[in-house]
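Work Package 3 (structural annotation) set out to generate three-dimensional models for the target panel prioritized at the project kickoff. During this period the team completed the workflow that converts sequence records into discrete structure tokens, so that structures can be stored uniformly alongside our sequence database. As a representative example, we reproduce one entry of 219 residues exactly as it appears in the project archive.
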Amino acid sequence: MALMSKGVSRPTLYEVRMPSLMGFGARDYIRMYCKATAIPAVNAATAMAAGQEHMGVTREQPVAVVYSKPLSLTIIERSDFVAYKSVRSWFDQVAANANPPSGGSLTGRSQRMRYYDSFVKDIQLVKLEQPPNGGTGPNDYIQTLSVDFINAYPISIGEVALASDSYDSQTEFSVDFTYETYNVSTPLFGAISQGVGGLGSAGGVVDTALGVLGTLTNL
């Protein structure tokens, strides 16, 4: 089998699946218009251990698995700011008065952190690829990798830059999510997603024998 029989992976094919609390409209939009993201690095933290087996020999002993943070998304915004408002609504759940009132309020502007379990949700990042046979339609893609970020929540919402001379540009913003760990998995049947990843995907899933063969090849 040729080394490049399956072609190179394209960084433009992916989709980000947000939790249900974002609302269907915002979730579907972010799947289509997340401009950039990345699978964070992971590494083993180590401690030096001397003479564990052989006198005078020092080795690095793993002590913890460390997941690089945050998970960062850059999103192209729509004219009604559906993505920004939805992300901000999730951020506001972290604390009471995270979005303090401009006028008078019974609670004033005092802020109180809410219970951790009340605002953490899972986020999924799916890597898509074009099937070798072209798929069943022009916008069908195989899900080759799935990354589930466990107990995530937004910790930083970037600025929304505005400029009167940027008439040929789109409005965008970035958001950073922290999380506890992430799980990397490969769909057993190489599911096909209807839509365009990176800038698009919004549909059903069809299992293919091609995905099964690809999975068995990699075992």
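Confidence is low (pLDDT under 50) at residues 191-197, 199-219.
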